C-alpha cells in the first residue's frame, strides 16, 4: 500500500511528526481547523481506504505549497457557512485522544533514540509503535505534499554534498570510482574514510590531501543533516525514495 509506505517513512522523520503536533496545538488554540490537518481516522482493526494524495512525489516548491495555502484561505473566506459542516465529521474528543497517543509514542521514540541510539532493537520497536499510531491518521493531501516535499529537500541537500565529494575524489584526485564507493558508502558522515584514503599509500592519496579540507567540510555538513533529522544518510535516502516513488493520485 503506497500511502502506508509513505506514512511509515515519514514516521521515522522526527521533524514531520513534530510539525503535525505543532499544528494540532494551533487547532487547540483555535488558530487552525482540524480539517486543515486531517480528514479523519482509520480504524486499525478494520480494512479502510487511506486518503488519495494529489501531489505525492511531485516537485512542489515551498512557494507552490504556500500558494495552495493562500487559495485555501480565499476559499475559507467565501465558504464560512460550510466550515462548521466540515468539522462535524471529526469528533474533536477522538482527535484529541489520537493526537495525544501520537505525542506519547513520538516522545517514547525520541527517548529511545537518546538512550539507546537509533539502531538499537528497543528504538526500532519505538519507531514501529509510532508508525502504527501515525498510520491511523487520514492526512489531507496538502499535508502529504508538505511532508514529502520536506523529505525531498533533505535528500537534495544530501545529494549535493555527495556529488561534491565524488567530484573531488574521482574527478580531481583520480581515485578509482570503485575504490571511492567502497570507502564512502555507509561512512558518509564519518571522517574515517578520508583518513583511510590519505594513509593508503596509493597514487591518489597525495591528490586527496589537496582537497582534504573541502572533503572534511562536506562530511561535516552531512553529519549536521543527520543530527537535524535524526536519520542516517542512508536512511534519509531510503525514506525519500519510498515517498517520491509514490506517484500523484496513487489509490490505496
UniProtKB/TrEMBL annotation:
<dbReference type="GO" id="GO:0003677">
    <property type="term" value="F:DNA binding"/>
</dbReference>
<feature type="domain" description="RNA polymerase sigma factor 70 non-essential">
    <location>
        <begin position="13"/>
        <end position="226"/>
    </location>
</feature>
<protein>
    <submittedName>
        <fullName>RNA polymerase, sigma factor D</fullName>
    </submittedName>
</protein>
<feature type="compositionally biased region" description="Acidic residues">
    <location>
        <begin position="64"/>
        <end position="90"/>
    </location>
</feature>
<dbReference type="InterPro" id="IPR007631">
    <property type="entry name" value="RNA_pol_sigma_70_non-ess"/>
</dbReference>
<dbReference type="GO" id="GO:0006352">
    <property type="term" value="P:DNA-templated transcription initiation"/>
</dbReference>
<dbReference type="GO" id="GO:0016987">
    <property type="term" value="F:sigma factor activity"/>
</dbReference>
<dbReference type="Pfam" id="PF04546">
    <property type="entry name" value="Sigma70_ner"/>
</dbReference>
<feature type="region of interest" description="Disordered">
    <location>
        <begin position="40"/>
        <end position="91"/>
    </location>
</feature>
<dbReference type="InterPro" id="IPR013325">
    <property type="entry name" value="RNA_pol_sigma_r2"/>
</dbReference>
Amino acid at each position: 500500500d503506497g500511502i502506508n509506505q509513505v506514512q511509515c517513512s515519514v514516521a521515522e522523520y522526527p521533524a514531520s511528526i513534530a510539525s503535525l503536533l505543532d499544528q494540532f496545538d494551533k487547532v487547540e488554540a483555535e488558530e487552525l481547523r482540524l480539517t486543515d490537518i486531517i480528514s479523519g481516522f482509520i480504524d486499525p482493526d478494520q480494512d479502510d481506504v487511506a486518503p488519495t494524495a494529489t501531489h505525492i512525489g511531485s516537485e512542489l516548491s515551498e512557494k507552490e505549497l504556500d500558494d495552495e495555502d493562500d487559495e485555501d484561505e480565499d476559499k475559507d473566506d467565501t465558504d464560512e457557512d460550510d466550515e462548521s459542516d466540515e468539522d462535524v465529521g471529526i469528533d474533536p474528543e477522538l482527535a484529541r485522544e489520537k493526537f495525544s497517543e501520537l505525542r506519547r509514542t513520538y516522545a517514547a521514540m525520541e527517548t529511545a533514540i537518546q538512550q539507546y541510539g537509533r539502531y538499537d532493537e528497543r528504538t526500532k520497536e519505538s519507531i514501529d509503535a509510532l508508525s502504527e499510531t501515525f498510520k491511523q491518521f487520514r492526512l489531507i493531501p496538502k499535508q502529504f505534499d508538505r511532508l514529502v516535499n520536506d523529505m525531498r529537500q533533505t535528500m537534495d541537500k544530501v545529494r549535493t554534498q555527495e556529488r561534491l565529494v565524488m567530484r573531488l575524489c574521482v574527478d580531481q584526485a583520480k581515485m578509482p570510482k570503485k575504490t571511492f564507493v567502497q570507502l564512502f558508502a555507509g561512512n558518509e558522515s564519518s571522517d574515517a574514510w578520508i583518513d583511510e584514503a590519505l594513509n593508503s599509500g596509493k597514487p591518489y592519496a597525495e591528490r586527496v590531501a589537496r582537497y582534504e579540507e573541502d572533503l572534511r567540510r562536506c562530511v561535516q555538513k552531512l553529519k549536521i543533516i543527520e543530527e537535524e533529522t535524526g536519520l542516517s544518510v542512508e536512511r534519509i535516502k531510503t525514506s525519500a525514495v519510498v515517498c517520491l516513488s509514490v506517484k500523484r493520485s496513487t489509490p490505496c
